[in-house]
Amino acid sequence: MEKLRFKRGGDSRGRASPCLPSRFLIKGTVAGGVVYLVYDQELLGPSDKSHAALQKAEEVVPPAMYQFSQYVCEQTGLKIPQLPAPPKFNFHIRDSWNSGIIMVMSALSVAPSKACEYTKDGWEYLKERIK
Predict the structure, then answer these.
(1) What is the membrane topology here (predicted)?
(2) Could you report the per-residue pLDDT of 56-107, keeping only the tens digit for each?
(3) In the 8-state DSSP scheme, what is residue 91?
C-alpha cells in the first residue's frame, strides 16, 4: 500500500490549500495595519513626533500587556509569574542617533578629499622607496 504524500499547503494533486488565501489575507491585513499606524503616528516624520510616540508607547504598552496577561490567566486558568520591572535608563536614543548620523555624514562628505590625499601620500611613499 502506497502512502500519500502531500505537499505543504496543498493536496496530492498539487492544488492549493483552501487556507492559503486566508493566510495571505491575514498577513496583508497585519502589514497594512502596520503601515497605517506608522503613517498615522507620523513615525517617519520629524524626530520630535517620533520621540513623543516612543514615550507614549512606553507609557501605554506595559499596562496593556499586564491586562492581556491577566485576561489570558482568567480564560485559561494558567498562572503567569510576575516579571520584574524593566530597568530605567537615563539615556536618550534620539541624541545618540542624531550624533551618529552627523558623524557618518561628515565622514562621507570628506571621503573624496581624504581619498585624494591618501593616494597622493601613497604615490610619494612609493617614489621614495623606488629611488
Answers:
(1) Single-pass membrane protein
(2) 888 888 888 888 888 888 888 888 777 777 777 776 666 666 777 788 888 8
(3) -
| Same domain assignment for residues 104 and 131 | yes
Question: Are 54 and 33 part of one and the same domain?
Answer: no
Domain containing 112 equals 94-131
Q: Is residue 112 in some structural domain?
A: yes
| Residue 73 contacts residue 80 (beta carbons within 8 Å) | yes
- pLDDT, tens digit, 9 for 90 and up, residues 8-52: 555 555 555 555 677 788 888 988 988 888 888 777 777 777 778
d(CA 10, CA 6): 7
Asked, for residue 85, whether it belongs to a domain, the answer is no
Cβ atoms 53, 94 nearer than 8 A: no
